[in-house]
């Protein structure tokens, strides 16, 4: 019965069967999908944290603005991987996206652990954890559902809105927001890398590193990224 309900839900999501055509993979469309899901991911994670702990926590992935870039990247992967399952049944697409979403989340966790010596999520206490706590079955299903909604509902809507705008306006807005989010990601990357180095006892060796230590000391980083914990070495 549950399988039938799931199949019915997925069929309704994919009912329009709008194609993610090659001409709809232009930078403008993909950038706004990325930005929108950075915001949606932040709101989703904040809501989950509130329901779990009863209080609001910072779940941002960037220093400036309410964005979670892992969800933005996941949204891009959903669209770019669609061509591999475009002719598959809705349930098969859901399972494919659930699996690839889990692989992506596990990979992101491994990369963070090996580069920064830290982790930002741990599901090892969950009954359905996967990959030594790097993801779990529930989040795997969330990735699958999000991907289906992105491919069949959200992305086509973003394309329609983008196409309805004046070309000059859309180009300027895309360039401006792309520059801002790129700067945010660069500053965040530098600050987080320096945060990790400080934790493991590395003194600043350049004026840039010294500046990062002054502007983004540990107390600031702990407030922005409260779930980022370091591994014992």
UniProtKB/TrEMBL annotation:
Keywords of the record: Membrane, Transmembrane, Transmembrane helix
TM annotation in the entry: 26-51, 63-82, 94-117, 137-158, 170-193
Source organism superkingdom: Bacteria
Protein name as it appears in the record: ABC transporter permease
Originating organism: Youngiibacter fragilis 232.1
